[in-house]
Design brief:
The chain has 321 residues and is α/β, with parallel strands linked by helices. The protein folds into three domains: 104 residues, Winged helix-like DNA-binding domain superfamily/Winged helix DNA-binding domain (Arc Repressor Mutant, subunit A), CATH 1.10.10; 97 residues, Periplasmic binding protein-like II (D-Maltodextrin-Binding Protein, domain 2); 105 residues, 3-Layer(aba) Sandwich (D-Maltodextrin-Binding Protein, domain 2). It contains twelve helices and 13 strands. The longest helix is centred in the N-terminal third of the chain and has 28 residues.
Length: 321
């Protein structure tokens, strides 16, 4: 039984002379499970309780709030008006209690723990392999779980607490009260080709020259699309010119290194190939002069594991042009 207790204001009908009983977090968790499933049997299965134990818990909660929370309608349990009000407040209470427990656990595991990270396409290409190598060599007790995929899906996973933080394209994240968005880097974009490409040594590559070859890119934000169109004209709209498109920048860079395809994206993603001499930045006219803005995104108000400071430090060191 959880030792933490909370009060639901203005629901108990006790008089000022009567003692107020503290509300049990477990009762609220059990009630939320019934409210979400609409079924005592499914809720009991989710909670690993017997139905009789779950029924007693709900009855105890109804006694505490001095009112009926559920109505039996056919084979389904429906919330009463009081039940709907209690659900709204109980969710916040249970979440806060969960965060208190999590904070205590994080403090006990400051020298280890788990790092669950979502990486966008650009950050994934720049950070993923170097980060895992760094953690394996310097912090072998930390478990690192990295997911890749569309930013929209990763935001859902962050809000579901399946991820602790994201490093993603800032332009693809809509500001919201439940998100803490910290800019971490602004990095130059470029047109990248293999060193033996026919355009590699051309002093002034035009858009028409570029469009003679396949263009490889990730899905781009509306703002970047607008900047490209302003720079090169309507014919530069990526929805028209992109012939190879996916979220895996590393895969696109690999294709570019093997073919005459041209990569449009953050220059730092091709850093190793450029330094090794296998890739080059094309000298376009006009110059691209577009940047990608990356951000560290976490849930506002959520306690962050001490181990996440390692990620912040690594991102600050690695996310540079």
């Amino acid at each position: 039984m959880c030792p933490m207790h909370y009060f639901l204001d203005n629901h108990s009908q006790t008089s000022s002379s009567e003692p107020t009983n503290p509300m049990n977090i477990r009762h609220l968790e059990h009630f939320l499970a019934v409210a979400e499933t609409g079924s005592f049997s499914r809720a009991a299965e989710r909670l690993h309780l017997t139905q009789s134990a779950l029924s007693r818990s709900i009855q105890a909660l109804e006694t505490e709030v001095d009112g009926r929370l559920l109505d039996r309608v056919g084979k389904r349990n429906e919330l009463t008006p009081l039940g709907r009000h209690v659900v709204e407040r109980a969710r916040r209470i249970v979440l806060e209690a969960s965060e208190v427990r999590r904070s205590a656990e994080l403090l006990r595991k400051a020298d280890g723990g788990v790092m669950r990270i979502g990486l966008g396409s650009g950050p994934g290409a720049i950070l993923m392999t170097p980060l895992m190598c760094h953690m394996a060599q310097n912090h072998p007790r930390v478990r690192v779980n990295i997911t890749r995929g569309p930013t929209e899906l990763q935001l859902v996973q962050l809000r579901a607490r399946q991820l602790d933080a994201l490093v993603v394209d800032e332009r693809r994240v809509a500001p919201n009260d439940d998100l803490h968005i910290e800019p971490v880097a602004e990095m130059a974009a470029a047109w990248i080709a293999r060193a033996s490409h026919p355009l590699a040594h051309q002093a002034a590559v035009t858009l028409a020259n570029l469009l003679d070859y396949p263009i490889a890119t990730t899905p781009l934000s509306d703002e970047v699309v607008r900047l490209l169109v302003e720079r090169y004209g309507p014919e530069a709209n990526p929805t028209r010119i992109a012939t190879l498109q996916c979220d895996d920048v590393g895969g696109l860079i690999d294709v570019v290194s093997r073919t005459n395809a041209i990569f449009l994206g953050v220059r730092a993603a091709a850093r190793e190939g450029i330094e090794a001499g296998s890739l080059c930045e094309l000298q376009t006219r006009p110059a691209l002069r577009t940047t990608a803005r990356y951000a560290y995104v976490s849930l506002a108000g959520r306690s962050e594991a001490p181990v996440m400071s390692l990620l912040r430090e690594f991102v600050a060191q690695r996310m540079v042009d």
